Amino acid sequence: MTYYESTGHLLLTPVDREAPARAVRLRELGLGERTDPELDAFARRAADVLGAPYAGVNFVGEERQFFAGLHHGAEAPASGYPARVLARDHGYCPHVVVRRRALVLEDVRDFARFAGNAVVDESGVRSYVGAPVTDRRGIVLGTVCAVDVAPRRWGTEGLATVKALAAELVALVHEREDRAQTAGEDRRG
Prior knowledge:
- With about 190 residues, the protein is an alpha+beta fold.
- The chain has helices at about 20-30, 35-50, 95-100, 110-115, 120-125, 155-189, and strands at about 55-60, 65-70, 85, 105, 125-135, 140-150.
- A hairpin with a 3-residue loop joins strand 1 and strand 2 (about 65-70).
- Helix 2 (about 35-50) runs antiparallel to helix 6 (about 155-189).
């Protein structure tokens, strides 16, 4: 963790030494730059399975986060949350990516490190569950996550579910990559 020099407050986003390699890998895979209807459907299913009003497939780049897949229920506030693009210091997904493991926050306000995050004040997020999406090269591309505007007990079942969803998404990413490689070989051959 680093500190804001002017205020002495903790910087909410951990240092991400893998960001340059991740950005290259995301470009190779064609992820993290545009919305994806298949990933929107995946996020919708994640929200349904987890019983959450919001869910996303989030790819974390060097400077920002991009929700290539996003679902929000009818109760989404007029503020525009959830947005497709967030700064790296907003939200909890960058922590999952750097830590390389799932994160469950039943009430974000119970954790001083997370309570001051901008998504709490600006968007009303109160609980979070997310798991890393790690590709076959060992690069954490982003997360599958869900949030709620009320505290909630995700429990071990919610944690297991979000991890299973992340594994399913990894399989989808690899399948897409394999198809693209085969198509490229067919064009050359």
